[in-house]
Protein backbone atom coordinates (compact mmCIF):
# COMPACT_ATOMS: atom_id res chain seq x y z
CA UNK A 1 0.00 0.00 0.00
CA UNK A 2 1.68 3.14 -1.22
CA UNK A 3 0.41 6.64 -1.94
CA UNK A 4 1.73 9.03 -4.57
CA UNK A 5 1.87 12.70 -3.62
CA UNK A 6 2.19 15.10 -6.55
CA UNK A 7 3.12 18.67 -5.66
CA UNK A 8 3.15 21.83 -7.70
CA UNK A 9 5.91 24.20 -6.50
CA UNK A 10 5.09 27.92 -6.82
CA UNK A 11 2.27 29.09 -4.51
CA UNK A 12 2.05 25.50 -3.23
CA UNK A 13 5.35 24.45 -1.64
CA UNK A 14 6.66 28.01 -1.56
CA UNK A 15 4.25 30.87 -0.92
CA UNK A 16 5.39 32.92 -3.91
CA UNK A 17 6.16 32.54 -7.60
CA UNK A 18 9.88 31.71 -7.79
CA UNK A 19 10.09 33.28 -11.27
CA UNK A 20 8.80 36.64 -10.05
CA UNK A 21 10.78 36.42 -6.77
CA UNK A 22 14.04 36.49 -8.76
CA UNK A 23 13.18 40.06 -9.85
CA UNK A 24 14.40 41.12 -6.37
CA UNK A 25 17.90 40.71 -7.88
CA UNK A 26 17.21 43.26 -10.63
CA UNK A 27 18.33 46.90 -10.41
CA UNK A 28 15.80 48.69 -8.14
CA UNK A 29 14.11 45.26 -7.75
CA UNK A 30 12.01 45.76 -10.85
CA UNK A 31 12.00 45.04 -14.59
CA UNK A 32 11.73 47.66 -17.33
CA UNK A 33 8.16 48.06 -18.66
CA UNK A 34 9.09 46.86 -22.16
CA UNK A 35 10.40 43.60 -20.77
CA UNK A 36 7.52 43.18 -18.33
CA UNK A 37 4.96 43.71 -21.10
CA UNK A 38 6.67 41.28 -23.49
CA UNK A 39 4.99 38.19 -21.98
CA UNK A 40 2.59 36.29 -24.27
CA UNK A 41 0.11 33.79 -22.77
CA UNK A 42 1.41 30.21 -22.97
CA UNK A 43 5.01 31.40 -23.53
CA UNK A 44 6.22 31.96 -19.95
CA UNK A 45 9.51 30.07 -20.42
CA UNK A 46 10.61 32.32 -23.30
CA UNK A 47 9.62 35.36 -21.26
CA UNK A 48 11.75 34.17 -18.34
CA UNK A 49 14.62 33.62 -20.79
CA UNK A 50 14.50 37.36 -21.56
CA UNK A 51 14.37 38.17 -17.82
CA UNK A 52 17.51 36.08 -17.19
CA UNK A 53 19.33 37.82 -20.05
CA UNK A 54 18.40 41.19 -18.51
CA UNK A 55 19.69 40.07 -15.09
CA UNK A 56 22.92 38.78 -16.66
CA UNK A 57 23.39 42.01 -18.62
CA UNK A 58 23.06 43.91 -15.34
CA UNK A 59 25.80 41.88 -13.68
CA UNK A 60 23.58 39.70 -11.49
CA UNK A 61 25.69 36.64 -10.61
CA UNK A 62 24.76 33.06 -9.73
CA UNK A 63 25.58 33.68 -6.03
CA UNK A 64 23.29 36.73 -5.90
CA UNK A 65 20.47 34.69 -7.41
CA UNK A 66 20.97 31.77 -5.05
CA UNK A 67 21.04 34.06 -2.01
CA UNK A 68 17.78 35.69 -3.13
CA UNK A 69 16.01 32.43 -3.99
CA UNK A 70 16.76 30.79 -0.65
CA UNK A 71 14.90 33.60 1.17
CA UNK A 72 11.60 32.67 -0.52
CA UNK A 73 9.08 31.74 2.21
CA UNK A 74 7.51 28.30 2.41
CA UNK A 75 3.71 28.17 2.51
CA UNK A 76 2.22 28.08 6.03
CA UNK A 77 2.60 24.61 7.56
CA UNK A 78 4.67 23.31 4.61
CA UNK A 79 7.90 22.79 6.58
CA UNK A 80 6.01 20.54 9.04
CA UNK A 81 4.23 18.72 6.22
CA UNK A 82 7.45 17.95 4.32
CA UNK A 83 9.05 16.83 7.59
CA UNK A 84 6.11 14.47 8.18
CA UNK A 85 6.33 13.04 4.64
CA UNK A 86 10.09 12.56 5.08
CA UNK A 87 9.47 10.52 8.25
CA UNK A 88 6.93 8.31 6.43
CA UNK A 89 8.70 7.69 3.11
CA UNK A 90 7.83 3.98 3.23
CA UNK A 91 4.18 5.02 2.68
CA UNK A 92 4.62 7.96 0.30
CA UNK A 93 6.30 8.45 -3.04
CA UNK A 94 6.53 12.15 -3.66
CA UNK A 95 7.17 14.11 -6.87
CA UNK A 96 7.17 17.76 -7.94
CA UNK A 97 5.70 18.79 -11.31
CA UNK A 98 6.37 22.48 -11.79
CA UNK A 99 6.68 25.22 -14.38
CA UNK A 100 9.60 26.72 -12.45
CA UNK A 101 13.11 25.41 -13.25
CA UNK A 102 15.64 22.87 -11.97
CA UNK A 103 18.10 25.47 -10.64
CA UNK A 104 15.59 27.37 -8.48
CA UNK A 105 13.89 24.28 -7.07
CA UNK A 106 17.23 22.61 -6.35
CA UNK A 107 18.56 25.64 -4.46
CA UNK A 108 15.40 26.02 -2.38
CA UNK A 109 15.02 22.32 -1.47
CA UNK A 110 18.72 21.88 -0.65
CA UNK A 111 18.90 25.02 1.50
CA UNK A 112 15.98 23.73 3.60
CA UNK A 113 17.26 20.11 3.44
CA UNK A 114 14.08 18.81 1.78
CA UNK A 115 15.55 17.31 -1.40
CA UNK A 116 15.42 13.78 0.12
CA UNK A 117 11.63 14.06 0.55
CA UNK A 118 11.09 14.07 -3.23
CA UNK A 119 11.72 11.06 -5.45
CA UNK A 120 11.72 13.10 -8.66
CA UNK A 121 11.37 16.70 -9.78
CA UNK A 122 9.85 17.38 -13.21
CA UNK A 123 10.44 20.98 -14.26
CA UNK A 124 12.07 23.08 -16.99
CA UNK A 125 15.80 22.27 -17.24
CA UNK A 126 18.05 25.22 -16.44
CA UNK A 127 21.80 25.84 -16.25
CA UNK A 128 24.28 28.69 -16.11
CA UNK A 129 26.29 29.33 -19.26
CA UNK A 130 30.08 29.90 -19.30
CA UNK A 131 29.34 33.63 -19.30
CA UNK A 132 27.25 33.29 -16.12
CA UNK A 133 23.80 33.70 -17.65
CA UNK A 134 20.95 31.43 -16.53
CA UNK A 135 19.22 29.71 -19.47
CA UNK A 136 15.99 27.71 -19.22
CA UNK A 137 14.62 25.22 -21.75
CA UNK A 138 11.12 23.86 -22.28
CA UNK A 139 10.50 20.68 -20.28
CA UNK A 140 9.15 18.74 -23.28
CA UNK A 141 7.04 18.96 -26.42
CA UNK A 142 3.38 17.85 -26.28
CA UNK A 143 0.11 18.12 -28.18
CA UNK A 144 -2.23 19.15 -25.36
CA UNK A 145 -4.28 22.19 -26.42
CA UNK A 146 -5.05 23.10 -22.80
CA UNK A 147 -1.49 23.53 -21.53
CA UNK A 148 1.37 26.02 -22.02
CA UNK A 149 3.61 24.86 -24.82
CA UNK A 150 6.56 23.92 -22.60
CA UNK A 151 4.75 21.66 -20.12
CA UNK A 152 1.66 19.45 -19.92
CA UNK A 153 1.52 18.18 -16.35
CA UNK A 154 -0.95 15.44 -17.27
CA UNK A 155 1.56 13.98 -19.74
CA UNK A 156 4.28 14.09 -17.05
CA UNK A 157 2.05 12.33 -14.52
CA UNK A 158 0.89 9.68 -16.99
CA UNK A 159 4.45 8.91 -18.11
CA UNK A 160 5.65 8.70 -14.50
CA UNK A 161 2.84 6.27 -13.58
CA UNK A 162 3.55 4.12 -16.67
CA UNK A 163 7.24 3.97 -15.77
CA UNK A 164 6.42 3.02 -12.17
CA UNK A 165 4.09 0.24 -13.36
CA UNK A 166 6.93 -1.18 -15.46
CA UNK A 167 8.96 -1.32 -12.24
CA UNK A 168 6.07 -3.08 -10.51
CA UNK A 169 4.98 -0.04 -8.47
CA UNK A 170 1.31 0.91 -8.39
CA UNK A 171 -0.42 3.32 -6.03
CA UNK A 172 -3.47 2.90 -3.80
CA UNK A 173 -4.23 6.57 -4.27
CA UNK A 174 -2.80 9.67 -5.93
CA UNK A 175 -3.04 12.96 -4.04
CA UNK A 176 -2.46 16.01 -6.27
CA UNK A 177 -1.62 19.26 -4.45
CA UNK A 178 -1.56 22.47 -6.47
CA UNK A 179 -2.98 25.91 -7.07
CA UNK A 180 -2.71 27.01 -10.70
CA UNK A 181 -4.61 26.79 -13.97
CA UNK A 182 -1.99 24.41 -15.39
CA UNK A 183 -2.80 21.94 -12.57
CA UNK A 184 -6.31 21.37 -13.96
CA UNK A 185 -5.18 19.13 -16.84
CA UNK A 186 -3.54 16.50 -14.57
CA UNK A 187 -6.46 16.73 -12.10
CA UNK A 188 -8.91 15.73 -14.86
CA UNK A 189 -6.74 12.61 -15.38
CA UNK A 190 -7.25 11.43 -11.76
CA UNK A 191 -9.63 8.54 -10.99
CA UNK A 192 -12.39 8.26 -8.40
CA UNK A 193 -10.14 6.93 -5.59
CA UNK A 194 -7.69 9.81 -6.09
CA UNK A 195 -7.81 13.22 -4.44
CA UNK A 196 -7.22 16.70 -5.83
CA UNK A 197 -6.19 19.26 -3.22
CA UNK A 198 -6.51 22.76 -4.70
CA UNK A 199 -5.32 25.73 -2.65
CA UNK A 200 -8.19 27.84 -1.36
CA UNK A 201 -8.87 31.02 -3.33
CA UNK A 202 -6.49 30.15 -6.19
CA UNK A 203 -7.17 29.41 -9.87
CA UNK A 204 -7.27 25.62 -9.60
CA UNK A 205 -10.04 25.68 -7.01
CA UNK A 206 -12.09 28.07 -9.20
CA UNK A 207 -11.59 25.96 -12.33
CA UNK A 208 -12.64 22.73 -10.59
CA UNK A 209 -15.75 24.50 -9.27
CA UNK A 210 -16.51 25.79 -12.78
CA UNK A 211 -16.35 22.24 -14.19
CA UNK A 212 -18.87 21.09 -11.56
CA UNK A 213 -21.17 24.00 -12.52
CA UNK A 214 -20.86 23.01 -16.18
CA UNK A 215 -22.01 19.51 -15.16
CA UNK A 216 -18.69 17.91 -16.14
CA UNK A 217 -17.14 17.53 -12.67
CA UNK A 218 -13.76 15.91 -12.09
CA UNK A 219 -13.88 12.20 -11.28
CA UNK A 220 -11.65 12.37 -8.19
CA UNK A 221 -12.52 13.70 -4.72
CA UNK A 222 -11.70 17.37 -4.07
CA UNK A 223 -10.37 18.65 -0.74
CA UNK A 224 -9.51 22.34 -0.50
CA UNK A 225 -6.56 23.44 1.68
CA UNK A 226 -5.51 26.84 2.98
CA UNK A 227 -2.52 25.76 5.07
CA UNK A 228 -0.30 22.71 4.61
CA UNK A 229 -1.53 21.65 8.06
CA UNK A 230 -4.83 20.76 6.32
CA UNK A 231 -2.90 18.49 3.94
CA UNK A 232 -1.04 16.86 6.83
CA UNK A 233 -4.33 16.18 8.70
CA UNK A 234 -5.66 14.44 5.60
CA UNK A 235 -2.49 12.33 5.13
CA UNK A 236 -2.65 11.23 8.78
CA UNK A 237 -6.22 10.03 8.18
CA UNK A 238 -5.08 8.20 5.02
CA UNK A 239 -2.41 6.28 6.94
CA UNK A 240 -4.99 5.19 9.54
CA UNK A 241 -7.51 3.90 6.95
From TrEMBL:
Substrate binds at residues 19, 99. This is PHOP2 phosphatase. It comes from the Eukaryota. InterPro entries: HAD-like_sf, HAD_hydro_PyrdxlP_Pase-like, HAD_sf, Pase_PHOSPHO-typ. One of its GO terms (molecular function) is phosphatase activity. Its cofactor is Mg(2+). Belongs to the HAD-like hydrolase superfamily. PHOSPHO family. The keyword Transferase does not apply. The keyword Transmembrane does not apply. Pfam families: Put_Phosphatase. It comes from Stercorarius parasiticus (Parasitic jaeger). Mg(2+) binds at residues 8, 10, 179. The active site is at 8 (nucleophile), 10 (proton donor). Keywords: Hydrolase, Magnesium, Metal-binding.
